[in-house]
Specification:
CATH topology of the largest domain: Aspartate Aminotransferase, domain 2
CATH class of the largest domain: Alpha Beta
CATH superfamily of the largest domain: Type I PLP-dependent aspartate aminotransferase-like (Major domain)
Largest sheet: 7 strands, mixed
Number of strands: 15
Shape: globular
Strand content: 15-25%
CATH architecture of the largest domain: 3-Layer(aba) Sandwich
Bound molecules: pyridoxal-5'-phosphate
Strand order of the largest sheet: 2-10-9-6-5-3-4
Structural class: alpha/beta
Oligomer: single chain
Length: 370
C-alpha cells in the first residue's frame, strides 16, 4: 500500500542544487568582489566564451535577462514599429514582450496538438507584407519542428529567431539548439536548467555583425566609453551572475541527463488513460525544463496530487492571445483551440535533477492510482 510522504514534493526545488554548490559559488563571488567586477567585465566575458562553446555557436552576448535577449535580438535585425513577428500562442508571455518592446506586433499561431510546440502548418496563412520574422520557442526544453519552420522562413525571406530560454543543452537532429536561427535567446533565470544566482540572459549567434550590434545595444549604444553611436540600453549581465553561471555550466550536462532519466521513467511508467503526455519526435533531444501533462480532470487531479503532498505547476494557464495585456489585438476564445486546451488542462509534474529515485517512484505511483 502506498504511504503518503510527509514532505511535499514540489514542481521545482532550487535548494538542493544551491546547497551542493554553495562553497564553490561563494568562492567565485569573492573573486568578483575582490576586483569589483559587478557589471559586465571578465566574469561575464568568461561565461560568454564557455556558453558559446557549449552551445556550438561562434558568439554569446550576455545580457540582464531572457526578455531583454529577445528584444535586443529583434532590434539587431532591424525589426520595429509597423513590423509583425509570428510567435506561438502557447509560450511564456516574455516571447511576446520581446516583440512588443521593439514596437512590432506579435502575430500568434496555434500549437501542434501532439507536440504542443509551434505548428508550422499554421504559419503561412499568418504571413503578411509586414511580417519580418518568426520566433520559434523550444518549449518545456523540447526543440520545435525547426526544419519545417526554417523552410517557411527561407521561402518567404523571414528571419528565424530561436527562443531557447527553456532549452539549454537541447538538441535537434543531433545539433545544439541555438544554432539554427539568425540568433537564439536564452534565459538564465534561476529556475531554468542553467540558472544564474540572479537574473541573466544571453544571445547566441554565428554572425559577427549581430554580436557586435548586441554588444553595443546592451551597453548604452557605445563601443568606446561615453561615445554613444546609437540609442542603447543598460542591459548588461552582472558579474556575480556571470561567475555563478560559469560554475553551474560545468554541471549542466549531468543535470540535463538526470532530467532525461526522470522523464524516461515518467514516459514509461506513468500508465493512466486519464493522463496525456507530450509527444516527442525522434529527432529531438529534450532537456525537460518542464514535464507537462494534460488531463480532462485537471481540477480533480490537482486536488488529488496536493492531498498526496505533490505540488504541481501550471505552464501556462492562459495562452498569450487571451492575456488581458493583449486584449487590444482583439483575439478571442476559439482562435487557437489547441493552445487553449493546453492552458485549461496542463499540469507540470515535479522535474529537477535532485529528485531522488524514490521520489520519482512515488510520483509515478500516485499518478497511476488516480
Ligand atoms: C519561453 C521563454 N521565453 C522568454 C523568457 C524570458 O526570460 P527571463 O525571465 O529571463 O526574462 C522565459 C523565461 O521565463 C521563457 O520561459
Amino acid at each position: 500500500m502506498l504511504v503518503k510522504r510527509s514532505q511535499k514534493i514540489n514542481c521545482l526545488d532550487l535548494k538542493g542544487q544551491h546547497q551542493q554548490l554553495k562553497a564553490e559559488i561563494f568562492e567565485a563571488f569573492e573573486r568578483v568582489y575582490e576586483i569589483t567586477a559587478f557589471s559586465g567585465g571578465p566574469f561575464v566575458e568568461e561565461f560568454e566564451k564557455y556558453f558559446a562553446g557549449y552551445s556550438e555557436s561562434d558568439y554569446c552576448v550576455g545580457v540582464n535577462n531572457g526578455t531583454s535577449a529577445i528584444q535586443l535580438a529583434l532590434l539587431a535585425l532591424g525589426i520595429g514599429e509597423g513590423d509583425e513577428v509570428i510567435i506561438p500562442a502557447n509560450t511564456f508571455i516574455a516571447t511576446a514582450w520581446g516583440v512588443t518592446h521593439v514596437g512590432a506586433t506579435p502575430v500568434f499561431v496555434d500549437c501542434d496538438p501532439q507536440t504542443w510546440e509551434i505548428d508550422p502548418s499554421q504559419i503561412e496563412s499568418k504571413i503578411s507584407s509586414k511580417t519580418k520574422a518568426v520566433i520559434g520557442v523550444h518549449l518545456y526544453g523540447m526543440p520545435f519542428d525547426i526544419d519545417s519552420v526554417k523552410s517557411i522562413c527561407d521561402k518567404h525571406n523571414l528571419f528565424l529567431v530561436e527562443d531557447a530560454a527553456q532549452a539549454q543543452g537541447a538538441k535537434y537532429n543531433g545539433k545544439s539548439v541555438g544554432t539554427f536561427g539568425e540568433m537564439a535567446c536564452f534565459s538564465f533565470y534561476p529556475g531554468k536548467n542553467l540558472g544564474a544566482c540572479g537574473e541573466a540572459g544571453g544571445i547566441t549567434t554565428n554572425h559577427e555583425k549581430y554580436a557586435l550590434k548586441l554588444q553595443s545595444l546592451r551597453n548604452h549604444g557605445c563601443v568606446t566609453r561615453y561615445y554613444h553611436d546609437e540609442i542603447g540600453f543598460n542591459m548588461r549581465m552582472g558579474g556575480l551572475e556571470g561567475a555563478s553561471l560559469s560554475i553551474k555550466l560545468k554541471y549542466l550536462e549531468g543535470w540535463n541527463n538526470r532530467r532525461r532519466e526522470i522523464a524516461k521513467r515518467y514516459q514509461k511508467e506513468i500508465v493512466n488513460s486519464k493522463i496525456k503526455l507530450q509527444f516527442q519526435p525522434e529527432n529531438t533531444d529534450s532537456v525537460y525544463h518542464l514535464f507537462v501533462v494534460t488531463t480532462d480532470e485537471k481540477e480533480k487531479f490537482v486536488t488529488y496530487l496536493n492531498e498526496w503532498n505533490i505540488a504541481p505547476g501550471f505552464h501556462y494557464p492562459v495562452p498569450c492571445h487571451l492575456q488581458k495585456a493583449y486584449s487590444f489585438l482583439n483575439y478571442k476564445i476559439g482562435d487557437f483551440p489547441h493552445s487553449e486546451y493546453l492552458a485549461a488542462h496542463c499540469v507540470s509534474l515535479p522535474m529537477y535533477a535532485e529528485l531522488t529515485d524514490d521520489e520519482v517512484s512515488y510520483v509515478i505511483q500516485v499518478i497511476n492510482n488516480f
